[in-house]
């Protein structure tokens, strides 16, 4: 080799050096194993191991449940690209085995190992389920196989050729009120080419249920052995259902459309005609059968503080401080966490002692909906202002619910808090106000004093001149006195009635409800459905709270019915109250299935008018 050739080789090596520079293997080595999740007995499948660097010494695991009928075959690919002066290189090395299952069941393929740059790396493990082979048509006619769980509606199937149908599956068919159910519509197909899983969809209204839809994402297919045949399956729709009443509730059938890719077979004379055949899309209507859910009422013996929670919950609380001064804010935080009908859990109330000015609590919902149900937390922040010095006890907060795991009622209780309130300096001349929706005590503002002193010096002599006891002078004294007496007589009864807050709320119940109904009508006409349903629910609950003189936090549909029944209100009127409350509550969380807004508005207005004419 001449000197000139050596110089050329050296320059070439320097130019290619950036492409083959040193790398830190441990930072970006990826070694993975992949195989189908489900395979069929008697049919081969492929197991692949992929690594993104040059490697050697692949060691596959022992696989006694499978026969290796081919492999490993290796293949590699690499690419380099330049974008904005940045070089990006990729490399892939793949080893492929062809396996044949020996028996049915679920099996684990252990990790493999490989050496990259002197270091050994292990792949992930795999779980493979071997399904039975397809039965012959004669064998399958002996009877369909029944699966124990989840509960499904059984569709009919045609075993003569291509087959496609939808099953309705629910996690449970026997539940209690408010207990969560997972409903799924699952597509099964074999011997057909599905180009599009769903086209037009018509779901049932799910009457009697509160619905919480789940995010579907991309449709994924899996193999499933059903009724003697192996089908490709895909979940088309999933939702969580919470029954709102007891009894047998029928879920109506659902209608779907699938688009099938069908070969045009007008006249096929040879295998070449079949190879070059054209295809067209055909719409296939599909019906998912209906199913009946048996809903049991919650058992008797509900705790006094039960507000409808069904599931499994925990309770925690904290307090901002145990020592404050007058006109300072005190915050109690409460967190209800767990799994169940979280959206239906009502906010517990605190029985604040006298000496505190109380504000509406701030509620933050952190819920997550999965196939396992609705879980998360309901965080509540209670705010009160200390108005008088002293030592106070903030009583424990109780929360009762029905535990679906133990099928019993449970009551959770927080600890009591002792708070010392000291008198603040100069607080007697200050006024405390709040602005907007509070988040913490920085939102509490103190306004400066505005009391002016009364002048006590004697009136000057020149101002006392002409102040004799004239007729005008007497008139100036007598008229106010007579007017005061008249007003005292006229308003004495009203003053006495206003001292009874229960009677005041009773008299103003209809006036407040009419204001809310008027606002709800405006929201309905403006098309603001969510705000309309919320205002309608507030109108009904606020009216009943004022009319029955019971705090809204302590009201439930059950004790409303008991109170009205104790006051000799007819069962028809009680049922009307229960129906309106249930419909309003259901519509607020499931507006799409709530029915006519006008009917709900008219029913609420009619209920209030009927109760106004009823002696309670």
Overall description:
The protein has 616 residues and is α+β, with helices and mostly antiparallel strands. It folds into four domains: 21-131, Sandwich (Immunoglobulin-like); 146-296, Immunoglobulin-like (Sandwich), CATH 2.60.40; 309-447, Immunoglobulins (Immunoglobulin-like), CATH 2.60.40; 501-612. It is 24% helix and 39% strand. The chain has eleven helices and 34 strands. The strands form nine sheets. Strands 23, 25, 26, 27, 28, 30 and 31 form a seven-stranded mixed β-sheet that branches. A hairpin with a 2-residue loop joins strand 17 (221-226) and strand 18. Helix 7 (501-525) packs antiparallel against helix 11. It is elongated and about 135 Å long. The termini are far apart. The relative contact order is 0.07. Mean pLDDT is 78; it is low at 17-26, 138-149, 156-160 and 429-453.
Task: Kindly name the structural category.
Answer: alpha+beta
Largest sheet: 7 strands, mixed
Share in helix: 10-25%
Question: What gap, in angstroms, lies between the N and C termini?
Answer: 115 Å
Overall 3D shape: elongated
CATH class group of the largest domain: Mainly Beta
Radius of gyration: 38 Å
Architecture per CATH nomenclature, i.e. the level-2 architecture of the largest domain: Sandwich
CATH topology of the largest domain: Immunoglobulin-like
Runs in which pLDDT lies below 50 for 5 or more consecutive residues are: 17-26, 138-149, 156-160, 429-453
User: What fraction of residues sit in β-strands?
Assistant: 35-45%
Number of strands: 34
């Amino acid at each position: 080799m001449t000197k000139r050739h050596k110089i050329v080789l050296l320059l070439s090596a320097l130019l290619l050096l950036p492409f083959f520079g040193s790398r830190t293997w441990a930072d970006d080595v990826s070694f993975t194993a992949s195989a189908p999740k489900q395979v069929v007995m008697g049919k081969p499948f492929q197991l692949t191991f992929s690594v993104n660097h040059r490697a050697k010494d692949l060691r596959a695991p022992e696989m006694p449940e499978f026969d290796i009928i081919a492999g490993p075959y290796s293949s590699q690919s690499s690419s380099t690209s330049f974008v904005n002066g940045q070089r990006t290189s990729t490399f892939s090395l793949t080893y492929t085995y062809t396996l044949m299952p020996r028996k049915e069941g679920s099996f684990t393929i252990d990790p493999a190992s490989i050496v990259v740059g002197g270091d050994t790396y292990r792949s992930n493990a795999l779980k493979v389920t071997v399904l039975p082979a397809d039965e012959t048509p004669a064998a399958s006619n002996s009877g369909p196989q029944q699966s124990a769980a989840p509960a499904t509606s059984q569709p009919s199937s045609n075993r003569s050729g291509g087959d496609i149908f939808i099953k309705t599956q629910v996690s449970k068919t026997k539940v209690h009120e408010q207990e969560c159910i997972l409903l799924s519509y699952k597509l099964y197909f074999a011997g057909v080419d599905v180009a599009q899983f769903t086209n037009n969809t018509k779901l049932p209204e799910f009457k009697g249920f509160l619905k919480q839809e789940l995010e579907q994402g991309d449709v994924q297919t899996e193999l499933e052995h059903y009724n003697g045949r192996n089908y490709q399956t895909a979940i088309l729709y999933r939702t969580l259902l919470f029954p709102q009443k007891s009894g047998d509730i029928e879920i109506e059938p659902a209608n779907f459309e699938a688009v099938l890719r069908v070969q045009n077979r007008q006249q096929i004379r040879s295998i070449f005609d079949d190879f070059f055949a054209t295809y067209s899309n055909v719409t296939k209507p599909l019906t998912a059968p209906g199913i009946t859910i048996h809903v049991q009422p919650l058992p008797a013996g509900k705790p006094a503080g039960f507000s409808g929670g069904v599931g499994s919950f925990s309770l925690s609380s904290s307090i901002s401080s145990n020592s404050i001064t007058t006109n300072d804010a005190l915050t109690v935080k409460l967190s209800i966490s767990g799994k169940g009908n979280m959206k239906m859990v009502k906010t517990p109330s605190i029985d604040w002692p006298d000496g505190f000015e109380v504000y509406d609590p701030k509620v933050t919902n952190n819920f997550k909906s999965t196939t396992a149900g609705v879980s998360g937390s309901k965080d509540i922040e209670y705010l009160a202002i200390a108005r008088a010095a002293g030592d106070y006890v903030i009583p424990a907060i109780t929360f009762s619910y029905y535990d679906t795991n133990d099928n019993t009622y449970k009551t959770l209780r927080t600890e009591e808090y002792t708070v010392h309130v000291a008198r603040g300096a100069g607080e007697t001349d200050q006024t405390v106000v709040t602005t907007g929706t509070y988040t913490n005590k920085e939102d509490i503002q103190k306004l400066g004093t505005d009391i002016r002193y009364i002048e006590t010096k004697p009136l000057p002599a020149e101002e006392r001149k002409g102040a004799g006891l004239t007729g005008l002078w007497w008139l100036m004294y007598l008229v106010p006195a007579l007017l005061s007496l008249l007003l005292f007589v006229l308003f004495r009864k009203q003053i006495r009635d206003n001292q009874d807050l229960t009677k005041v709320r009773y008299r103003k119940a209809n006036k407040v409800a009419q204001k809310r109904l008027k606002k709800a009508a405006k929201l309905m006409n403006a098309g603001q459905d969510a705000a309309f349903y919320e205002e309608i629910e507030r109108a009904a609950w606020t009216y009943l709270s004022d009319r029955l003189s019971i705090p809204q936090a302590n009201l439930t549909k059950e004790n409303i019915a008991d109170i009205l029944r104790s006051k000799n209100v007819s069962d028809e009127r009680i049922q009307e109250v229960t129906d309106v409350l249930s419909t309003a509550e259901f519509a607020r969380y499931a507006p799409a299935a709530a029915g006519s807004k006008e009917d709900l508005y008219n029913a609420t207005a009619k209920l209030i008018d009927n109760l106004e004419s009823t002696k309670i």
